[in-house]
## 1
Amino acid sequence: MPDGEMTSDLFFLARGETKTAAAPLFTRPEALLVDRVRTGDKEAFGELYRMFAPMVHGIILARVPRDEVDDIVQDVFISAYKNLQTLRENGAVGGWLATIARNQAADFFRRVKQTEELSENTQLDDGSKTKAHEILATIRSCPDAYKETLVLRLVEGMTGPEIAERTGLTPESVRVNLHRGMKLLRQKLGIEV
Amino acid sequence: MNDEYLWNKTGTDSEIEGLENELKAFRFSADQPPALPARIEVLPEKRTFNFFKLGFAVAFAAAVVVAMTLIWLRTPVNHPEKRSEFVKSNSENVAVPISPGPFSTPIMDPPMPKPKVINFKPPTTNATRAVKITAKKEEKLTPEEKHAYDQLMTALAITSNELKLVKDKINGRDVERTAAPDRQK
């Protein structure tokens, strides 16, 4: 069940909670930033954006065509800014943003489906046949839990602990997803283990 | 594959490094946050009062009332028409006087008391027939009550005997009875 860990974590994140308990949620730097944003501090929002934008970008890149990613990232942060009053725990802002990003990606496919039938090319292939695009397409063909973690690690350059901290997943889940996802990617790319 | 490099980038792994270099082109680069709206309209909180729930509650209460009324009307002792039929059908078998009280009895009537069973023993002598009623209350009678009770029973027995004589006379049996003493004489 490759998606099991993802769904269980999403269950908690939907309530604005997180499973990482390395530090109290309210003492985290992002919690203080959220406090400032709540008072209307737009500079704090900029810092929050720089802290979490790579994570949001990676989550969306793992799902939607590359041309659409930047617009959806913007939409995620604007939506978060507008709905900040619905965030219960300031320290859980990472998981909350990740959930918004996943929902926005799902909304994108819903919108596209209403106007035109989706083809495989729209979903996975960006029209280019370079090696980088092939690798990205292969990662996107993996299960959700794996492709998200692999993109954050290989594309965004985040370490495992950083991924866990930003997304609100447990380090154990991230480690398992990374290991299994990498193994699957090697198989798909034809790299011998 | 170097798991530690995959996890926290310690050590080296040429294969993963190669993938990182290939995919670096897709990495997030924009540092500028999106232009935020100058003013955010705070949406009013959703009303907690739900008309649908209220309607459902009212409908449920009405259904309960209707159901209780139907049950009450279907009970024979409560329905005015069925009550008379019920009383009539039961009065044929049970010789218990039913109080014709007003139709204001509560919904749950107490169970009807069982009729007292009166056993008539056959007369011990021809002259007087002693009738004894076996009732539990008899044991609790005081001596005066016991005396009155015995006298009443004796009077009843005599009356009964007299009535029987009258009845026999009417039926023509008096001839035999009257004839018998004559023959004895």
Note: Residues 1-21 of chain A have pLDDT under 50 and may be disordered.
## 2
Amino acid sequence: MKGTLSGRKREAIAFYLFMLPWIVGIVFLYAVPLVASLVLSFTNWDLFNSPQWVGLRNYTNLLTGEGTSFWLALRNTAYYAVVLVPLNLALSVAFALLLNQPIILRRWFRTAFYLPSTIPVVAVVMLWSWLLAPSGVINSILKLVGIGGPAWLVDPAWVKNGLIIMGVWQLGGGVVLFLAALQSIPRHLYEATMLDGAGAWRQFRAITVPMLSPIILFNLVNGIIGALQVFTQVYVVTQGHNAGALMMVPFLYDNAFEFNKMGYASAIAVLFFVMIMLLTLIVLRWSRRWVYYEGEVT
Amino acid sequence: MTSSSQAPAAPRTATRPGRSGRLAATPSRRRRGPGLAQRIPVYVILLAGTVLMVLPLLWMITTSLASTKYVTTFPPKLFPDTFEIANYGRIFSDTDLGRYLLNSVIIVIPSMAGQVVASSFAGYALARLRAPGRRFWFVVTLATLMIPYEVTIVPTFVMFRYLGWINTFWPLIVPQLFGSGYSIFLMRQFILQIPTEYDEAARLDGLGYFGIWRRIISPLSVPAMATVAIFTFTFQWGNFLGPLIYINDSSKYPLALGLYAMTQTSNVGQTPDWNLIMAGGMLLTVPMVMVYFFGQRFLYEGANALGQIRV
Amino acid sequence: MVAAGAAASLGLGMTACGSDSAQQGPADKANLIMTIWGSDNDTKTYQQRADAYTATHPGVKVTVKNIPVENYDQQVDTMIAGGSSPDIIEVNGTDGPALASRNVLVDLGPKIQSSGLKPEDTVDAARVKGYSLKGKQFALPDRGGNLVFYYNKTMFDKAGVPLPKAGWTWDQFTEAAQKLTIVQGGKTVQYGVAIDDWPNAVQSVVRSFGGTLLNDSLDAPAVDSAAYRKGLQTYNDLATKLKVSPTLKDYADFGQNVNRDALFAQGKTAMIWAGLWDIPDFVKQGLSFGIVPPPSGAAGNPTMLAFGTGLAVGARSKNQDAAWEVVRYMFSPDGQRPIVTNQEDVPSAKALLSEWEKGLPSGVTYDELAKASDQVFPDQTPPQINQIEKQVQQDLYPFFTGSATVDQATSTAASHIKGILAGN
């Protein structure tokens, strides 16, 4: 501890110097826009003329106005998330468990599963619009087993399911994370229960699940937030023409950048933000009952 | 999961509570369990899963090499009869994909560099440097992870418009230069695992905080930096909404947006066929796959750091 | 502190909107940007006209920027919002009023007056009116055709069906379509007609049955009227009941962005509703075709939506005077001539119409259309027409894909229109 400035002070200064870029980022890319969205949501602004204060009118129009698409967008988005996220989670864990078995060529299998998740969304859509075409490959295969496949990406009643198929195909990222976590569970835990004659299922419930639970929670929250904010697939598949696929962010995008209703779009953003926050809090609360953190004294 | 349920009672006698306290290895024959019979279902399921994952990709490849005649017949046969590598030449000569590719490269490289440096700085600070308010900033960093991007797009658009950056690459690159919650979190977790003895040794050698960062922490945190670089690349390479909002000139489109724009031409005779679109899709995909391939080990180490989420 | 920052950035954003009276450049020296949409031929023609102006006014250069039509409105908006407003903007009956109501287009009225130009001398008075909103002239008509009906002569001759002519009825049309649909081995290899949910065609057909989107005073929807519903249902029945046209599902099979124009160009359908801009493309494909007024749902009703595009001057442009001079030149018959020589479209200038008709490819005559000039009708244009059309297209989509009835779809559309007109 030499020098005129005390060591502590120098460390603190160093901390803030290193943090400076990020702190600037936090302020200008998160904090300010967050507040600005709130403020904007109380105005009508078309980017050209001056904003006009309208109070809560955007919100009432959104929630109760005649012909509002808000609830449709919410329903569509909720359906997409509620189906896709648990499905992905369950399948990812299942495949990770399988991959964790003593098998040969594990690396190849793992790569095969991860590969689709590396493909950029635009290419995924191009590929799947071809595969899911009404007379495309998928429906041809279904026809072989006597099922008449729907117009996956065209029919408003089925377009969400088509999008979900695309989403499931890209679940590789989760598989990799779970596999890594599984492989870091200490062997001695399993071996200890083996001595007690515990069966595979018991081991799964008593060891695997608790040890995996932080990762499961992480994936769950990320998955929900990601699914709720889907945009690119929806836009590229439908360009906004298909009401069956109207989701929150495309809805926001249309209002902000096609109709230039910045205030209205900001109200959508704020409402949606609050919903996501609440949902995340609920999930986190709920998670306390089943997530096990190592080092916790039970 | 082991096949321990099938283990006969015999292991008891084979158990030697060893010096390490762990069960000594049972004879390898036993460790592999009752062999193939039990693991056939595992292989079957994995193979089925692999087929479902890989086959569409295979179709993409074969279609990209198919002739135009093949792609305009329906229903498509499983494999085209002829393969035309010329398609890949055609996407560069007949379309603007080459230009789009270049734009993507121009955007992605500074983004990766900026993210790595900024998140490494912040991760180091949060992991190693004590200061009043450190815990606050860490919580705030985690909080930014929770902020959905859609609540910031309108105001950031307004901000960039004020700065005059519409129709340039700046709105896409600049935010990456400040770090992101995810990358910083990753770096912090990783750096926490580096023993502090290294820092102390360096301090005794007279290095200041920046020196420690540069000479000790950075080289040791290369796996995490690689992970951050890969994530940033993944994000920017496939970024669609950002360019859609900010870029007007079709000559400035990055690859993802450009590929989409290509399929929306209003030239009646010129709608590109599936085979060219798939070839373009391959152009978009191959770099991503290569990055994954060469960066695999980093991803797993990075994932492990995440696995020990400690707050 | 954060709130102050937010308010400050908003405030800065507001002032950065810029004032209309930004420094204006001289009229004889400028580099202008002109935004358009369309095909390569469109780009070529506009550039040709611009270059012709530059030839006599060397200080003024014009760069023509072609923006994909799907993103045109949004990208022009972004350019204006970003402070680099185009100087000359191509507009049509839908995005024009929206832009004009946001005050981003110069009111050309004063300029027209001070230059002594009389637009009605050059073009139809009705066309001029189509580009005015609340008394302000926001653009000058440039090219204009209307929606017309194409038929493939070779297919008609082969099937022995009499060629369509002006005044032909909907029943004659369906009969022809059925005769021209060829099914082989369970698959349709030739469609009598190719329809989809393109709003302009929908509007034209429905109008011929007596239906309109909005009422006459443009303050309430009329999309749920009996006439509209009948027209819509009859139109879609072509694909679903009579199976003489592909359905939207079938289009998804054909590939990305294959629409009715592409099908006609590929020789897979005998008839389509389309604009006159397709003529050069079809000629290039070597098709033998003709154009006529579309069939009418009820005798005496209009059948052809007038489109046109016009040219406007950006209110945020820094070269308004130079831009105006270019627009003025392009409005004159000389300035419009390349439209004719390149077979791009129908020119607005009355003087050029006969030249244009002469320029039609051999075998294609305008005669039948000339007989039906009373069947042309203009679009309804409240300022929100852009949003209304997009919303209605989205609302009618389930009807076209068969997951909603005509009543359901039009009722949804009506309630959306009400919301939009109410300032939603």
Note: The mean pLDDT of chain B is 78.
## 3
Amino acid sequence: MTTVTNGVNVQALLDARDVLKGAPEAAQFTWRASSKWQHGVHSSVTIQNYFGLGEEQNHKGESVFEADHPETFAAPDEGITPIEYLLVGLASCLTAGVASVAQNRGIQLRSVESVVEGHHDIRGILGADGDVRNGFNDIKVTFTIDADASKEDIEALVAQSQKRSAVFDALTNPTDVTVEVA
Amino acid sequence: MSERFTAVVIGAGHAGLAASHFLGDRSVDHVVLERGEVANSWRRERWDSLRLLTPNVLSRLPGLRYEGPDPDGYMTSGEVAGFISRFASLSGAPVRTGVTVTSVRRAGDGYLVTTSHGEIDCRAVVVASGACNRPAVPPWAEAVPASVSQLTPFDYRAPDQLPDGGVLVVGASATGVQLAAEIRRSGRPVTLSVGEHVRLPRTYRGRDVLWWMDASGVWDQRYDEVEDLDRARRLPSPQLVGSPSRMTLDLNALTAMGVSLVGRWATVRDGSALFSGGLRNVFSLADLKMNRLLGTFDEWAGAAEMDPPERFEPTRVPASTRLQCDLGSGEFRAIVWATGFRPDYSWLDVPVVDAKGHLEHEGGVTASPGMYALGLPLLRRRRSTFICGIEDDARAVIGHLADQLGRAPASTSVSTQP
């Protein structure tokens, strides 16, 4: 196997796969975000801990994400729009996948860039047309990748990355969502 | 009082009969138990139009070759049943038909096989009961309104048994694409729900694509050389049909016939079927894999005198794909679940079945001494999934079985020659 330096510890992931095959309970993770309303349509979302491998875990540090709406929505734009966070998740998840698959396949990456566009008809959320959905109509991701590989191998990296992407799955398949008041 | 045989073979399909053939060669006394008739699944659990995916030239069993006038043709189910029955007669297999095995458990240094017709003590068991005993249907089938008929490939025989109106075929393996095509030809609107699939052209560079698999050595790959064996063994069957016209039946062919494609059926919510939005990527994956395989063929063929290499149009993405459909709207009057099959080992009281209901084995040898498997996908090689793979598999597995018997402490029930 060639030594490539994409910086992904693929061996650790392959080892984890082998271990968790026989220990499905340890594979159950819970990711958490805590949100606090600030003012108007601005809220701050904090992420610090999660559950996994059978116990509570902590990120190295706490991350705070500001979410607001832009001036076109008559808001002060103190942060990005909530639906834009879905684009953040999708782009970063697919990119992580490309790097991991490339590492596993011995493909050296030089640069991986992508543009994610979510097409959104806002008449849905405004209640202006009951036939228009609230969420994205569709999403388009365009990757530009420079790597030691053929065009076909690069396309295969991107395809495999989608196949194993948590966010791609979460966006393309329905998820049961429960919202309660504590 | 139970009977005694050295070996009991469960199932008289091509795999069980091949086991019997080699047991006979090694002079191991045995019996083949069959719940129905020889080649029972081919007689009773197939739809009317089904033909074998492999061309006649690849229909090989130990000591039996296709010798008819049409080496490029594909046998009908009835012809396959006839072919397997001829093999049973030629090899003089000691088959008992109409005998259902209800339990197999360890007893002493062998096994006790309980059947609908009594008990049998034996030293060795060959499980050749097939990989496709039960159609697999997803749990949300229960949430489908009663106004929509539901059929599995075991229920389905021909389009005229379906109500008039739209049909949703779920799954795009060989079964799904074949049923979608013939139901569409009956004039009904057909929607096909497509998850991960295996795309293949029927012919490549003038030869059957499975001829390429066989000749180029792709099918020679051993189970212990396959990178992700679990996944490879679960792979859906390729999108192929054995038809006299040797047509390619990929998703582009179905689109041209007017079949609508939707993504993998994810669940039912509020009476609506929800389909995945990941259709483009399953197309890309299948196109990339097909092209990689064709590249392997080209490399193997080198400068051989054949038709030139071909590349096929990428799978066409529908202008808009539906993400949901109201199952109560009357658009679909029937659903055909082409969502795969599972083996049935409910009778097997030996701990060789994993949590997902699959037999655990190393190339047909289970961890329980004297218990063997034959006739499962990729059992020893990629060829194992197909009828012509059984000869080498059965020779190897029965060889192991007979050698173990020969090595075991002296016992009156052992009749093998060293």
Note: The two ends of chain B are 30 Å apart (CA to CA).
